[in-house]
Amino acid sequence: MPDLKSFASDNNAPVHEAIFKAMQDANIGDTIAYGDDLFTFEAEQKFKDLFGQDIKVFFVFNGTGANVSGIAHLTHSYHSIVCAQTAHIHNDECGAPEKFTGCKVLTIPSEDGKIRTSEIKPFLHSVGFQHHSQPKVISITQATELGTVYTPQEISELARFAHQHELFLHMDGARIANAAAHLGLSFSEMVSDTGVDLLSFGGTKNGIMLGEAVVFLNTELAKAYEYTRKQSMQLASKMRYIGAQFNALLTNDLWLKNARHANEMAAMLAEKVAAFPGVKITRPVQTNAVFAAMPPEAIEKLKRRYFFYVWNEQKHEVRWMTAFNTTEQDIENFVKALIESLD
Fold first, then answer.
1. How much is the pTM?
2. Cβ neighbours of residue 245 closer than 8 Å, sequence gap 6 or more
3. 17-249 CATH fold
């Protein structure tokens, strides 16, 4: 049995105590259901304080629900979605985007998890040709599935390209807090000011129990989304508990403290293992993900002690994730176990 401490995913971390307390504080008496409560109103206002007043925010249960319902609202079934080959909507949502939007997902190979306008252009040859699906959404992940981060300039370029060609730019922000912490920018500077149309804002990987947010930066696109959310089975009756969590996360920069700490722990881990013979850091460590290649026998030994994922079996590449609750002692213990696995 591996040690209880996991380096597999920040999803494995507990709920932050301040967020848990906020849920307990909300658990008093009756309140109106389906989001017509003070906790949800306050959370919506906190989003506006961070992203700008001219936005629309809707809370949902999970990240897949946020991605699928948001994109479905912007598309028809004859449309297509362009994303990186590593994108969560392509690899890790069990075909839900295609099933529930009816859209075709068009992927771009990417060594760093990012996509560029030059790589999207070839898909535009389908525009106006009735035999092909019509590109409508460019979806990017911030931070990417490989732990890398788009700069504001890169996002702005993608947004301009999208809008020039009557496309929408969607951002899967499952780890958006980690990206903002890395860049040292506000959400407004990284998202609102760069031209993103639709954001899936992640909280679960940053200390929340359950709940994500669908944020329309272009409020015209939000019309009737409440019906899409309901049809997508993402409308919570006891919405106050999701609202309460986001109230806590977005108060006193808790979101930033959690993400910054997770990033720092990943940087510490990468620095400590980089000098080990037989271990090679394979990707830039910009957020809370460390990718490394190591001997397969060492991987098996280490997996007996800790839970983590092998990212690429052919390359013997593993992924180690840190979280808001990862401690320096956790890193020290893991590094010690890694050294022993290499013997």
1. 0.96
2. 19, 22, 23, 203, 208, 209, 210, 211
3. Aspartate Aminotransferase; domain 2 (3.40.640)
pLDDT tens column, 225-235 = 999 999 999 99
How confident is the model over 129-142, as pLDDT tens digits? 999 999 999 999 99
Task: Please state which architecture CATH assigns to domain 254-342.
Answer: Alpha-Beta Complex (3.90)
Give the Cα separation of 217 and 54 in Å (integer): 7
Which one, of 75, 73, 7, 94, lies nearest residue 309 by Cα?
Answer: 7
Q: ω before 143 within 30° of 0 (cis)?
A: yes
In 3-state terms, what secondary structure has residue 77? coil
Which residue, 221, 222, 203, 196, is CA-closest to 43? 203
Between CA 243 and CA 212 the distance in angstroms is 10
AA identity, residue 115: I
